[in-house]
Design a protein that fits this description.
The complex is a heterodimer of chains A (243) and B (310).
Chain A lengths: L5 E12 L2 E6 L10 E6 L3 E10 L2 E6 L3 H7 L6 E8 L10 E6 L3 H10 L8 E7 L8 H7 L2 E6 L6 E2 L2 H11 L4 E5 L2 H14 L2 E5 L16 E2 L2 E2 H4 L2 E3 L6
Helix pairs in contact in A: 4-5
Chain B lengths: L9 E3 L2 E3 L3 E3 L8 H9 L4 E3 L16 E4 L2 E4 L8 H8 L8 E5 L4 H11 L6 E5 L17 H14 L6 E5 L6 H10 L4 E4 L3 E5 L1 E2 L4 E2 L5 E5 L4 H14 L4 E4 L5 H10 L3 E4 L2 H5 L3 H16 L15
Parallel strand pairs in B: 3-4, 3-16, 4-7, 7-8, 8-9, 9-10, 10-15, 15-16
Antiparallel strand pairs in B: 1-2, 5-6, 6-14, 11-14, 12-13
Helix pairs in contact in B: 3-4, 4-5, 5-6, 6-7, 7-9
Classes of the chains: A alpha/beta (243), B alpha/beta (310).
Chain lengths: 243, 310
Amino acid sequence: MKNDYQTATIVKIEIETPIVKNFILDIKLLARPGQYVMVWIPGQNEKPFGVMSTDPFSLSIAKVGPFSTLMHNLAKGDKLSFRGPYGNGFTLKGKKIVLVGGGYGAVPLYFLASTIGNGKRKNITVILGAKTKSLLPFVAKFKALGCKTVFATDDGSYGIKGFTTDVFDTMLKTEKIDSVYTCGPEIMMRKIADICYHKKIFCQVSMEKYFKCGGLGLCGECNCKGKLVCVDGPVFNGKFLVE
Amino acid sequence: MKKNLIDLSVKIKTVTLKNPTILASGLLGLDVKTLERVVKGGAGAVTMKSLTKEPRKGHNNPIIVEFEGGFMNAVGYANKGIDCGAEEFSRWRNVVPLIGSIVAPTSEEFCELVEKIQQIPIKALEIALSCPHTPGYGLLAGQGTPKATSHITKTVKKKLHSTIPLIVKLSPSVPALGEIAKAAESEGADAINMGNTLGPGMKIDINRASPILAFKVGGMSGPAIKPVMIRCVYDLYEAVKIPIIATGGITTGEDMIEAIMAGATAVGVGTAIYYRGISVFTKIVKEVEQWMSEKNYKNIMSLRGIAHQT
């Protein structure tokens, strides 16, 4: 059945930042950028995580609570069970693309960038922000993809001192952008969505909500402005966040 | 015959439903906006997710798992509590009736909840005495007996405004079902919801050698349980005179017709939302209208209980 769990084996664990680990699995997954899976630890809990890559299937997990701590305790050779993928994913449009990520919000954006053809990636600008240098994930990975990168830290320890939203705002003064994809803290995404809405730039946001039935659209736990984030999202057009 | 001449409206005491489909409690019923979507999807009435006295976290995930004929769930009454819930649903302005739903471990606590929930614009109140997977509530609190049902119904009925019909939701998984329904009816219940999820059941993931649900067991819903529900409704139609809401596996128009022929006045729809989307209510209604127009039936209630004639 569609909602059965698949069990894979962890073949490699990368330390991305002091709080983020990438789990590389021994299987391929059929998924679109922006989709998520429900990861299950038997006898414990089940949580949604955005897909980082599909071949091999990888998840990038920030240690933020009890469940992700359990995940971080897993080792190479351990099993990892999940169901999905679920959700709608991003709609890729236009040529000049900007990705705006806050913290581990970079994960689905990295997946999106990696699916764009090699020759076209020079048209992608990635703006990534975090509190401080050590918490910036995927710096090397985005560079390796050949995207233009701009980094912002709250404390100025790496890249520009300030917020991704300011970087984006400044960038719009000199460059013409076709579409913007953003994932990170809601306040950041709302700001980006607001700017794009007023400048009529296509924008998509990837929402994070607490899921219970996760991907089935039955329980209603993830309701947000009349939408169910688990099935109607997690990706929405930017207007969704514009007040 | 033109379809618009077909009368699908039904009555549960004083409440008229434009069609017999009701969103079952526990699905999508956390907030007004989502319930308004269910109304757009064609529901004749909507039931909120059950509220408890205090906020409850419920069971850990997974709270639901699919099996061959439906789903099993053990949510454990996760909800924000009566105060928060009442505030949310006090904003209900839709013409489609909102059915309140409350659960409690004791009749005293039921009364406290009745006090609060009847302040908001509900058109009927459902009390579930039948949850199979939450310690302290329903079956796990011994509420699935004629004695307990009688006591709780009587106490709640005393507290409840006479203008708000009381629906008692029973379990398909207990003996003496007819006796329980009769107990509810004789203490003033205005309708029976037949019923809650079946079981509980269990599903084990063989790759992890572990039950999947965090609570290990869960109530079964979906097409697989429909024959049990139909039998229960059929039996209850002979046991009580009050309307019966048939809940359990209703997915298509044919399912609804079957339940009404067994004796139901209305049907609860839940798991079918997974299979057919939020517009499942409209789909069911259209299928019923089509069938009735082909068979030359004009009034849905003329089908009620006709399977008992043979």
